[in-house]
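Appendix B. One record, verbatim.
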Amino acid sequence: MSNSVQMPALGESVTEGTVTRWLKSVGDTVEVDEPLLEVSTDKVDTEIPSPFAGVLEKILADEDDVVEVGGDLAYIGDGSDSGSAEVAPEEEPASVAAEESAPAEEKAEDEAPAEDTSSSAESSESEKSAESAPAADSQSSSGEGTEVTMPALGESVTEGTVTRWLKEVGEEVEVDEPLLEVSTDKVDTEVPSPVAGVVQAHLAEEDETVEVGAPLARIGSGAPAESQPAAEESKQEEAPKEEAPKEEAPQQETPKEEAPQQEAPKQEAPKEEAPKQEAPKQETSSASAPAAQSAAAAQSAPAKSESAPAKSESAAADTVGENSAYVTPLVRRLAKDEGVDLSTVTGTGVGGRIRKQDVIAAAANRPAAGSSAAAPAASGEAKKPFTLEIPEEAAKLRGTTEKASRIRQTIAKRMSESLEVSAQLTQVIEVDMTRVAKLRKANKDAFLEKHGVKLTYLPFFAKAIVEALKQHPKVNAQYDLETQQITYFDHENLAVAVDTPRGLLVPVVKDAGDLSIAGLAKAIDDVADRTRNNKIMPDELSGGTFTVTNIGSVGALFDTPIINQPQMGIIGTGAIVRRPIVVKTADGEESIAIRDMVYLPLTYNHQLVDGADAGRFLQTIKARLEDGNFEADLEL
């Protein structure tokens, strides 16, 4: 019995999704909740887990297909149709290619016997070459190759920018192997190759913006020449056979002269001059002579061995682990920021896929750069002079110019627009967090054990903020300049600024006013983790009524944050610092004590919120935090 896997609801306003990559092939066994495919919307890329355990019997939506919510994606069964399931992975691509490239196959089959007649004595070898020619051609839709087009990257996305080519002209590429990186204003992603073959041409350069459906590259079955790939391969295979009758006596020397002719085009394939066969033959004939006998014995072996150096050189330059089946842009960028070489990382994901946790673990286990140098300095009699250490990534950027990513462009645009459409100013208050600090220290271990998340200061700030929003509705409102209407919300949707390798994103904790500190801690940890891992849903990035940004996470005392439109305000939580403060004792006397202090800067829209309103809002938060009565909200 087969079960249908359908496109899940990816958010309230999302009605469809684009299949970007299948993680399982027909005939593969899949477990419940194991990632089955990747789906993209206009705001986020996410993995769809399998709702059933069994065998993937049929894929109903190809990559780059747009499927409505509730539409069928695949069939998963119990493997009773094992015969079809086993054959499907091999037969389905061939059948699809056969429908698209029937004329090319017929032509290849007609030409192959014509060439083989000149060497009838070696009929078995000619049959092999005749079989390999159609097989190679079946990977492309025609003799000129298959065009790779810009896929649909979301419902509202009409174009994408080519940020980096992962395969150069002349390199071999497999089905679903990442071909290039594309950036939009919401997401950076990789475009996998829809066919296997050789990259014949790049039809879009890096930093070029390409519309959805426009061609990006051409992939064929041979070297990057439109009219010669099939003929070139047949010449390479038939050359030793044609030369044998001409020089019957020195038959041992024939392979020595002809084998380089097979290898030379493969060696020169990544270069633009590869189609010119005569020059490579003359340059490489003497150097390749020792390998002639092995090349003549197995014609398919040189093709694989010669393509390997080109791939390894590209991989070395790219520092992307070739032992990993797939590396997302998020993981690649995180590795770049942490200075981790992906080729040294062992992936723990499905199929050896490198995950974010693998990169973080590799960075944590890496010995500090200055640890070995610090030991001699400690044992020595005199201190060594200070040495400035510049990270490798920072050194690479010095003195260079690069184009801003799409997400950076979007952030820049929206921040500028925010300052233009609202009257923003910032008010700062100082809060004594000593009682909260003591409460947190006394309960953080028990909190972690019971709730599974760390007890940070942010949930305390969030609890005080959402309570104050209920008492001060002007701050939890929206002002429409065009209609001159004010909307006062009856719910508190708290947006939380999250720093990610792609840039600043602001997921939303819906109905935060109904949550305890334990609930807020788990909700904030959940949305922040999924945002950093590019798993957040589109609807979770919108709908906020107020924003909090933890500027203290990088040691900042206070900042002047910019409002996330169309909200009325945003509050920053600075670093908590122990310092001497004048306090009043129980009998009213003043004394100096060491207290845990923090600055809370509030940026508000003066079009609706006056300075006095902002001050009262901050005083409510201050009183709640300094009172420190949060024991019941810990739910221990």
